[in-house]
Write a structure and sequence with these properties.
- It contains 20 helices and no strands.
- Helix 13 runs parallel beside helix 17.
- The two termini are 34 Å apart.
Length: 442
């Protein structure tokens, strides 16, 4: 089947579609990250305990894990194009709801924006795969950069903008509704005839891997839950997400507790995200020259662990060095985690299965990070124990990375090298990601 049969012509041309996709991508982190620089202020203003404040940053991550399987169902009902438009409206509504007074509005708005991001996480790579089959690598690279840019922007300017305009913490985290509204406006041309133009997504496979109707079971392939390699990939995705989101949630509060100004503490988080872009770009430049991804996983884990040790010993004096190390390490880790999902799979269908498992289970694991750190801070009255715990978790993260990065694949036999596709031809280029399938993060 020709590739064009499985994708619609974008309204307004490929450049307008690419711009819309990338602006949507920029919106998939600010709603979460913007809370972190204001978390200390929110705690003092509302009386929230550290545990509940950690829950505020954990809710979106829980949504990432729990709601991702619903994305394909939504896309089958209204089409991917219209679904993304609706999700940008939902994201705008969730961010705006947090402007209202009271804790109910704060947590309800956070849940809504988490749901919008969770579903968009799955659909955006599917849109890229469908409309840019010959430029998928380039577009996914730009997509990852857009994610980091959105996170860096939110971390760096939330506090300064709120202070400059006298918005308070509610207005500072609510201003990001403007960016999501702009994304919706730029996406409007794609909504014209979007449902009629799109080829329907296939019906979702049964969720139970033991079900004989499941594609893996029907083809004689073992279910992923029985594969040690699948669990190594999932643990790498989950643990790198856990340490990243835990640090993103609490490092500004840690630094302000140690005497750093809140605006500068927010900039530290922005610096980490900016350096993360260089880590991802370094991985992209080097991964095609080696077959194994083990060096990237080990280097990223060591850098992250070293940065945590540094934050324990000299949090303010060495903050710039620790954030640069942590940012570069996180860029290497997320790039490795995403790459091995594809490289360890024998074909695109198995890659989509692996992505669903890694993202669903991995993000549920990651959701424990911010809450756990907040609870430990409440229990101990300091940051040493939480930071030591994160440092210890870098060990199994590195071990999982070694297992996931070795050259093999999920069903045995020769695995694709970093520069070799796991599947080829029109079918591979146009296969949409099914339920829960996504190949990205931060």
């Amino acid at each position: 089947m020709p590739q064009s049969a499985n994708r619609s012509a974008p309204v307004g041309g490929a450049p307008l579609l690419a711009a819309g996709v990338l602006l949507i991508a920029m919106n998939l982190r600010p709603g979460v990250v913007s809370v972190s620089p204001e978390l200390d202020t929110i705690r003092h203003d509302t009386g929230l305990s550290s545990s509940l404040a950690g829950l505020l940053t954990t809710l979106p991550i829980l949504c990432f894990g729990l709601l991702a399987p619903l994305a394909a169902r939504l896309a089958r009902r209204i089409g991917m194009t219209r679904a993304l438009g609706a999700l940008m409206l939902l994201l705008t509504a969730g961010i705006s709801l947090r402007l209202a007074p009271g804790m109910v509005a704060l947590f309800a708005g956070t849940t809504l924006l988490g749901a919008a991001i969770a579903l968009s996480n799955v659909l955006v790579p599917s849109v890229i795969k469908r409309h840019f089959p010959e430029r998928t690598g380039l577009m996914m690279g730009l997509y990852s950069v857009a994610l980091f840019c959105g996170a860096a922007l939110a971390a760096g300017v939330t506090v300064p903008v709120g202070d400059a305009l006298g918005l308070g913490w509610r207005g500072a985290i609510g201003v990001w509704a403007v960016l999501s509204a702009l994304a919706f406006l730029l996406w409007l041309p794609q909504l014209r005839h979007g449902r009629a133009q799109e080829a329907p997504l296939p019906a979702a496979a049964p969720a139970d891997p033991a079900d004989p109707a499941d594609p893996a079971a029907a083809s004689g392939r073992p279910p992923l839950r029985r594969s040690p390699l699948a669990w190594q990939i999932t643990l790498l995705m989950g643990l790198q997400s856990l340490v990243y989101y835990a640090c993103a949630a609490w490092i500004p509060a840690l630094l302000t507790d140690k005497g750093m100004a809140s605006a500068e503490a927010g900039w530290m988080l922005s610096l980490m995200s900016l350096v993360g872009i260089t880590g991802s770009l370094a991985f992209t430049a080097l991964v095609g020259r080696v077959r194994s991804q083990v060096p990237f996983a080990v280097c990223g884990s060591v850098l992250f662990a070293a940065s945590l040790v540094g934050l324990t010993i000299a949090p303010v004096g060495g903050a710039y060095a620790w954030m640069i190390m942590q940012g570069f390490g996180s860029g290497l880790l997320i790039s490795t985690a995403l790459a091995v999902i594809v490289l360890r799979a024998p074909d695109s269908a198995r890659a989509a299965e692996m992505s669903g498992m890694a993202q669903g289970v991995g993000y549920l694991l990651a959701a424990a990070g911010p809450f756990l750190l907040g609870a430990l801070h409440d229990a101990t009255g300091g940051w040493t124990v939480p930071l030591v715990l994160l440092t210890v978790l870098c060990v199994p993260m590195g071990i999982a990375g070694v297992g996931a990065g070795r050259v093999r694949h999920l069903d045995g036999g020769p695995a694709a090298g970093a520069g070799e596709p796991c599947a080829s031809g029109p079918a591979a280029a146009s296969t949409p990601v099914p339920s829960g399938g996504s190949r990205h993060m931060p």
